[in-house]
């Protein structure tokens, strides 16, 4: 139950797993949001969970069900991709609102089950798409909606990064490699910018940069119902020594102009002799903090989150269609069965 604290209502949030590195940023954000409290942490890795408990000053639960039985309003799920379904459905059945790390699931069936269960239980399901909250992205959306570049015809996008290792390269837990990991962010932005749905996907996917049995690169062409199309390079192509984890860039071409977006450009470049490398020192806006603020407001006020479970499922469908296209060497039509 949400409690009153002065003129605001306190939202008590639990973290389900620190398997995904974004959990640490989200936990910091919860502690920074006025009216939100980090009220518990569950992780099946006791070492990892206890470390997070000490770091963030929240009680540790070895068992997710015990966390869900605690005095909470909502949870943030950052477990391995293949475990999102079990954790989101358990949270919904316990009456907790959910912010789920992307990709929302590893199959469309799992994503649909999550969306349907949360809807049936009357709880919010938000997808963690923090890039929606980056100021350059928000400004690009405003310019598109104002018609400043006319009708959007095409978009060229990238989402490059370093190969994360660990469970991200275990197909059973991750569901896919770089293409699944990095397509969903930009797929969500494309749907949001265009206010349109993808109709057809063609992709070529491979493993070129690392010795492993999961994809680390690909090229997608995504066609939308309006006739606009987008190309995307989602890859784990950045070396370990690269000064940042990656990028999100977009060139948005319209009939009356072009918008160039570089989401992570708010950095200072620091050449360090002691560390023998070049470092990027971020100075700009915290999109993870904005994401968590949006979720807290949705829980407190009953408003829709910026990116819903449906948004997460639609972005996942585009990534899954890319894999199907690469296997068949043919374009794949997207259906809207549910």
Can you walk me through this structure?
Strand 6 (97-101), helix 5 (108-121) and strand 7 form a beta-alpha-beta unit. The chain is globular. Helix 4 (84-93) packs parallel to helix 5 (108-121) and helix 8 (178-194) crosses helix 10. It is 35% helix and 29% strand. Strands 1, 2, 3, 4, 5, 6 and 7 form a seven-stranded mixed β-sheet that branches. A seven-stranded mixed β-sheet has the order 13-12-8-11-10-9-16. The protein is built from ten helices and 16 strands. The chain has two domains: 3-129, Rossmann fold, CATH 3.40.50; 132-287 and 317-333, Dihydrodipicolinate Reductase, domain 2 (2-Layer Sandwich). It is α/β, with parallel strands linked by helices and 338 residues long.
Which features does this protein show?
338 residues; alpha/beta; Rossmann fold; Dihydrodipicolinate Reductase, domain 2; 2 domains; seven-stranded mixed beta sheet
What is this structure's SSE topology?
Elements: E1 3-5, E2 8-16, H1 22-32, E3 36-42, H2 46-56, E4 60-61, H3 64-68, E5 74-77, H4 84-93, E6 97-101, H5 108-121, E7 125-128, H6 135-145, E8 152-162, H7 171-174, H8 178-194, E9 198-206, E10 217-224, E11 229-238, E12 249-254, E13 258-262, E14 267-272, E15 277-282, H9 287-301, H10 309-328, E16 332-333
């Amino acid at each position: 139950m949400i409690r009153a604290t002065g003129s605001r209502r306190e939202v008590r949030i639990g973290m389900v797993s620190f398997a995904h590195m974004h959990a640490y940023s989200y936990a910091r954000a919860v502690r920074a949001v006025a009216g939100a409290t980090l009220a518990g942490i569950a992780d099946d890795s006791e070492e990892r969970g206890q470390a997070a408990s000490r770091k963030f000053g929240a009680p540790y639960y070895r068992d997710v069900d015990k966390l869900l039985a605690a005095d909470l309003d909502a949870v943030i799920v950052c477990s391995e991709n293949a475990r999102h379904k079990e954790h989101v459905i358990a949270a919904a059945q316990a009456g907790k609102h959910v912010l789920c790390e992307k990709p929302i699931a590893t199959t469309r069936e799992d994503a649909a089950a999550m969306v349907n269960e949360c809807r049936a239980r009357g709880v919010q399901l938000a997808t963690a798409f923090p890039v929606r909250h980056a100021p350059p992205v928000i400004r690009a959306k405003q310019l598109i909606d104002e018609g400043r570049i006319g009708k959007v015809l095409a978009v060229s996008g990238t989402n490059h990064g370093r190969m994360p290792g660990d469970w991200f390269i275990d197909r059973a837990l991750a569901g896919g490699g770089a293409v699944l990991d990095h397509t969903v962010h930009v797929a969500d932005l494309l749907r949001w910018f265009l206010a349109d749905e993808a109709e057809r996907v063609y992709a070529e996917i491979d493993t070129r940069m690392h010795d492993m049995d999961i994809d680390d690169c690909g090229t997608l062409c995504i066609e939308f119902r309006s006739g606009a199309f987008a190309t995307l390079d989602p890859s784990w192509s950045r070396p370990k020594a690269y000064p940042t984890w990656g990028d999100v860039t977009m060139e948005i071409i319209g009939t009356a102009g072009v918008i160039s977006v570089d989401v992570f450009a708010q950095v200072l470049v620091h050449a360090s002799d002691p560390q023998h490398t070049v470092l990027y020192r971020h100075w700009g806006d915290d999109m993870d903090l904005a994401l968590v603020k949006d979720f807290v407001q949705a829980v407190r006020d009953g408003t829709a989150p910026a990116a819903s479970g449906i948004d997460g499922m639609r972005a996942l469908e585009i990534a899954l269609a890319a894999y199907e296209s690469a296997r068949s060497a043919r374009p794949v039509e997207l259906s809207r069965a549910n």
